[in-house]
Design goal:
Elements lengths: L19 H44 L9 E7 L9 H17 L4 E5 L15 H13 L5 H4 L29 E6 L10 E7 L2 E5 L8 E6 L4 H10 L11 E7 L3 H6 L6 E5 L2 H6 L15 E11 L11 E5 L6 H6 L7 H4 L2 E4 L11 H17 L5
Parallel strand pairs: 1-2, 1-10, 2-8, 5-7, 9-10, 9-11
Antiparallel strand pairs: 3-4, 3-6, 4-5, 6-7
Helix pairs in contact: 2-3
Organism: Adineta ricciae
Protein name: RNA methyltransferase-like protein
Family: Belongs to the class IV-like SAM-binding methyltransferase superfamily.
């Protein structure tokens, strides 16, 4: 038998052996041989695991593409009168939630609420206008949950907000998620060094310190500066979101525009809500400005109506940076055009006037249904025409 226990198994003493010393020596050698074999096996597994991790890291670095943002936007416009088709405040609240969910699912960047009639009477003893109620509910739904108490105190308009299904959007981050951007609110406390401000980003004891002094109570978009976007995406691929990753008491950060996550990292960062008095201002007051070379305007405007051209006849859309899809209310877009003082027509405002549900079985299609139908039908054609 070799003196090295890792080479061969020790020989068992004969059954006729009566010397206890031989058995004791055999057991010690057998134990040493088993331990050596186990260490050798573990070393081999560690080497294999290390080689796999090294290969994965090398492959990810060699195949990683440059981070590309998203410069194009998609907007939808709808009349506030659709809330009058709901018979109670509970149903009106739930209707607004359906619209917000549809916008989030299809990455809509802007929701425009316009007036298509002059009705101002109270419905179901509701003292608020339809546009006011719809806008407030959509803004509440878009706000991350940990910020709602700061910006939406208890109020009559949000009496049934508990009926709203959550958006679960990318900017509604959980506490255990690894993050690069977060929405937050500025705090009144000043850092110990007296520079900048503290921002509460919904991480309990963890706060973000920014380099600018801002008044308290502002909603801001924060980008952390202790990591780069490249490090974030590499770590995101390897990390497990179920593990707690936010254990720091202080994270350095900077204030960025709410559009920065979309422009630089292609994150969908929720929608903004805008009110328009007429259908003309819906189209003309575009908030997206690409610079001096590209003035703020919607370069693709689509109207939807059962009287429009069937979407099947449109093979492709012209190239665009900012698209707008306009939906009608209970009486269609024709009612909105009838309210225009200068008699503007659909041909003057829209590049396309489409029927996205030809041969419909029901006499009417509700606006919340039309949003889902239209975005589903046009999604592929829109994405192939974007200028990014």
């Amino acid at each position: 038998m070799s003196d090295d226990p890792s080479i061969s198994r020790p020989v068992r003493p004969a059954n006729s052996a009566v010397n206890s010393t031989d058995w004791r020596r055999y057991k010690e050698q057998l134990r040493a041989w088993k331990n050596a074999r186990l260490r050798k096996q573990l070393d081999a597994e560690q080497v294999e695991t290390f080689e796999q991790e090294t290969t994965t890291t090398t492959t990810s670095k060699s195949t990683s593409q440059p981070i590309k943002g998203r410069s194009y936007t998609l907007s939808i416009a709808l009349p506030a009168s659709i809330l009058r088709n709901a018979q109670s405040n509970e149903l009106r609240t739930y209707l607004a939630g359906q619209i917000g969910r549809a916008a989030c699912v299809f990455n809509i960047d802007e929701i425009i609420v316009f007036n298509d009639d002059e009705t101002v009477e109270e419905v179901d003893n509701n003292p608020f206008s339809a546009s006011e109620q719809l806008i407030r509910l959509l803004e509440y739904l878009e706000c991350p949950q940990y910020l709602r108490k700061q910006f939406f105190p208890r109020q009559k308009l949000l009496e049934y907000a508990g009926l709203l299904n959550p958006l679960d959007a990318p900017h509604h981050l959980r506490t255990n998620e690894f993050w690069l951007y977060r929405e937050g609110v500025t705090l009144p406390l000043r850092p110990a060094d007296g520079k900048g401000s503290w921002v509460d980003v919904g991480l309990y004891e963890t706060k973000v310190q920014i380099d600018k002094r801002l008044q308290q109570g502002l909603r801001v978009t924060v980008r952390r500066t202790d990591i780069t976007p490249e490090e974030y995406f590499q770590t995101k691929e390897l990390s497990n979101d179920t593990q707690q990753t936010n254990k720091k008491k202080r994270i350095p950060g900077e204030i960025v525009s709410p559009s920065t996550p979309r422009l630089e990292s292609a994150f969908y960062w929720g929608y903004q809500v805008r009110k328009a008095e007429t259908i003309r201002t819906v189209v003309e007051d575009c908030p997206f400005d690409d610079g001096d070379s590209h003035p703020a305007k919607y370069d693709l405007v689509i109207g939807t109506s059962e009287r429009g051209t069937s979407y099947d006849k449109i093979t492709e859309f012209p190239r665009f940076r900012h698209a707008l899809i306009v939906f009608g209310g209970l009486q269609g877009l024709e009612k909105a055009f009838a309210q225009e003082e200068d008699s503007v027509t659909a041909e003057q405002l829209f590049h396309f006037y489409l029927n996205t549900c030809p041969q419909q079985g029901s006499r009417t299609i509700r606006t919340e249904e039309a949003i889902l139908i239209t975005l589903s039908c046009l999604r592929d054609k829109l994405l192939t025409a974007v200028i990014n």
